[in-house]
Amino acid sequence: MGNLDGQLVGKVAVITGASTEKGLGDAIGRRYAAEGASLFLAAEGTADGLAKVSEECQKLCPGNGVVETGLFDLSKPDAPEAMIAAAVAKFGRIDVLVNNAGIRDHVKFGDFTREEFDKIVAVNVSAAFFASQAVLPTMREQGGGRIIHIASQMGHITFDNRAVYGLTKAALIHLTKTMAYELGRENIIVNAISPGPVLTQPILDRLENDPDYAETRTSYLRSGRFGKPEEVAELAYYLAVTDATYMQGTDLLIDGGYTTH
């Protein structure tokens, strides 16, 4: 497969959910920037966070890499399409779309409101669906592209108070397969990544507030530790550049062995 270093030079990547420092979008953006990509980072209503992530990514860009940002509430109709249109207007092309934006739930089944359900589905599934549809004309005109969905191990297993989150991530995995089946012959390569417990900000907050949390969760992890955002970013980089394009419609679990039991 050859050396994969620098394979995003001259390429453009759109990454959603990119405003949280120590988040997956942040880590993926930094990894892509370091390999020469120009970035369009999108997030909802968090201008300061988005600006900080953008600044860090720009520092890593070698050569002519450029980082642009946009605030979009992806739970709203037409926002995913507007995001893609803005990225195309800035760069004229999109080589990689990373659908990373997501909302977690922590509600017992039976207690969900319709509003809570609808918003989680809108951000976790509908946004990825319509952003992917919107990017097709550009990728077709270019002769191809890569679409990467950030799903979750919760799309494979169940857990307390995660009913809607797990439902949406399972749907995203199925969407990955459907899109790959329909688009693969057009050189639009679609795959997913399903992380397990990773040291993003929500878990870091939980570790600070719950002394028993680390021991409880790591008891299920064959790795004996939480994952790092950079490990997920490394996998996202591989999917963005690998010439092993026979891999299509695959969901890659990166969960420290959590789902092996």
CATH superfamily descriptor: NAD(P)-binding Rossmann-like Domain
Structural class: alpha/beta
| Poorly predicted regions | none
**Outline type:** globular
Query: Percent helix among the residues?
Result: 40-55%
CATH architecture field: 3-Layer(aba) Sandwich
Cα distance spanning the termini: 33 Å
Spatial arrangement of strands, main beta sheet: 3-2-1-4-5-6-7
The number of helical elements comes to: 8
Number of strands: 7
CATH class: Alpha Beta
> C-alpha Rg, in Å?
17 Å
Instruction: Write down the CATH topology.
Output: Rossmann fold
Mean pLDDT value: 93
Q: Strand share of the residues?
A: 5-15%
* Sequence of secondary-structure elements: EHEHEHEHEHEHHHE
Number of individual domains: 1
Features:
7-stranded parallel beta sheet; Rossmann fold; 261 residues
Task: Write structural notes for this entry.
This protein is of the alpha/beta class. The chain is 44% helix and 15% strand. It has 8 helices and 7 strands; from the N terminus they run E-H-E-H-E-H-E-H-E-H-E-H-H-H-E. The chain has helices at residues 24-34, 47-60, 79-91, 114-142, 163-183, 201-209, 213-218, 229-241; strands at residues 12-16, 38-43, 67-71, 96-99, 145-150, 188-195, 251-254. The protein has a 7-stranded parallel β-sheet, sandwiched between helices. Helix 1 (24-34) links the parallel strand 1 (12-16) and strand 2. Helix 3 (79-91) runs parallel beside helix 4 (114-142) and helix 4 runs parallel beside helix 5 (163-183). The longest helix has 29 residues, at 114-142. It is globular and about 50 Å long. The chain starts with 11 loop residues before the first strand and ends in a 7-residue tail after the last strand. The mean pLDDT is 93.
